[in-house]
User: What shape does this take?
Amino acid sequence: MDFALIGFGLGVGVLVGMTGIGGGSLMTPMLILVFGVTPITAIGTDLAYAAVTKTVGGYKHWRQRTVDLRLSSWMALGSVPAAVAGVYVLRALEDWAGRDFDDLLLTVLACALLLTGAATLVRAFLKSMHERERDTIEMERRHKVAAVVLGLGVGFVLGVTSAGSGALIAVGLILLFRLSPTRVVGTDIFHAAILLWAAGLAHVMAGNVDFGLVGNILIGSIPGVWVGSHWSVRVEPAVLRTTLAVVLLGAGLALLIKAGLDLPVAVIVPFPVAVLALLVVTMARARRARAQVPSGGP
Assistant: This one.
């Protein structure tokens, strides 16, 4: 048993359950940067553990009735085959790049993390119009097409990098379908469980999964995602999302440095300051929003 891995799994699991974000986007760079796992094994291992973790979270959200099943199903029509295709594209890249494959994969993963961090920031600062939010959507043809296309893009990115399923899908659910926050998290996690099983099994067949690592992470992540899912309908996650977005951007830059890109120190140093600044701004916005809600008294 590796207690550091169990602790990381617990923390990531709580974040995933509460926000729908943070699984592959955090665990994969942790495995690479902290535990020294090779990039392709980190991606495969992350997808395998995340499939189990998000299944637990998806079941919890389904019981809480925070899942739009029809929308999840239409997204899965695009995301599942795209994720499997992404795994085979990854294998083709390994054959093509040879000894340079690890650096190439680190660069691709870093770009995915930067995109995910930006998407998470967008989600955290989207000014949701409460009168336009909805718990479900009547799936007309244009909605079905949008769901399949969204699934195709996110599924492929996930199959290649293991990152992005939570943040990218969440932003799509907000911008394209205007779902309410709790339904965004629940639908996101439920769909991700379907998607991750497809991608994870493809990586198992490709031999990219370390089952010892998977077991250690799951010991922490399963109770973590259950607790986080329980809290998701009770806790305002805006501060968590903002902090997580900056962490993802920082992890993306760290992976670019590990891949050999000569980034100046001035690019890295501002991140702790940015974390504090964004936390202050987000907490102030949350406090102001709570103050504007009527007390409900007589």
Remarks:
- The chain has one domain: 3-291.
- Residues 246 and 293 are 29 Å apart (CA to CA).
